[in-house]
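Throughout our pipeline, every protein is held as a single compact record rather than as scattered files. Nothing more is needed to write down the fold, since each code stands for a local backbone conformation. For reference, a complete record is included directly beneath this paragraph.
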Amino acid sequence: MCGLAAIARYNDSSGVSRREIVAIRDRMQNRGPDGRGLWIRDRVALAHTRLSVIDLSAAAAQPMIDKTNKNVIVFNGEIYNYLELKHRLKKKGYRFFSHSDTEVLLYLYREKGSRMLDDLRGMFAFVIWDAEQESVFCARDPYGIKPLYFCDDGKSLRIASQVKALRAGGAVSGELDPAGLCGFYLFGHIPEPFTSYRAIRALPAGSLLHCRLGAKPVIHTYFSIAETYRRASLEEKSSWDPGRAADAIRSSVARHLTADVPVGVFLSAGLDSGAVLGLMRDAHSESITALTLAFDEYRGTRDDEEPLAAQVARRYGARHVARSYSCADIQELIPEFFAAMDQPSIDGLNTWLLSRVAGKQGLKVVLSGRALRPAPLPAGTRHGAPRPHARSGGGSRDRHPSPTHRAAPACWPR
């Protein structure tokens, strides 16, 4: 869960304010406690806060520069097929100086430009400064797992992983957006592309943004999940293969274990998280730490998930860590919870509480069953299909009510 930031003065000849880009970056220090980076060239600046997951060395620090063409990248996420892509690029003569997936993205852009997006399997948001074209290219993964926000005032383009970070720079208007706030009251979250502020928008899932100095930013859609579901709905019932779906889930979990740090799992008493743990074990993941959230008020009742979660952990040989909170604990933590929230949401408390436990256990990456929920399938079928990208780097942006754990008891201060 890194944090990225960029400023491009595409219609303004003045240089980027170092104070502003540093303020935006430093507001995201919680997203990347392992390092900070900054690159500034006149009208363009890129910045980064790093959470080290793949290649923990300084060679993978960001912003990362392509020494051949001077392109620069900042990246948040993980590319699960980066080793295959790296092998392909090596055969074409590319030399690598790190073991990171960031460097793979940088060279894949040099090789294919925006067509690189067709090759990526993962969750990502990144910004690339193209030195030759004097342009900014940024993209967000097809499911919108990784956040990417921007502000375009007609002169400058500002980009960051958090809305609060863009506001921290001091140059973005704080005028509230009625559409975003209305969405919150209707749905319990602010629907994208809206945010709390008129001046800030989310880059839609499956979209890319291109901005050349001297020209206005342009947004294109490269992938549509709605269109994918539409095509699937037209398929014949006989084309649905449950075995193929099971293989896809196994493959997804195995891919999500790609890391140079331990990978844990959020474990409840439900089927989703138990299945994820079992598939982690089947993928030969060793020394798995399973984290369970419990509440003192549920102790000894049918709502207490800890006993069954402990049984599941023992079955799969996982180290089980359970943390129980009381109403008093939750009330004390509520101010910290709201401070950590980037956009208003009625969801996320349970995940945030468990993420605190994960951090104290030294875990940077945790798998979750939060996104295992039914999806539209070909007509006539009754099977469920997963949204397999549930990996979390210490937090989750899933906007649905969490099925991972029982809701916290009614502890909110009145």
Q: What stands out?
A: The longest strand covers residues 122-130. The chain has two domains: 3-223, 241-367. Residues 333 and 352 are 10 Å apart (CA to CA). The domain at 241-367 is CATH 3.40.50.620 (Rossmann fold).
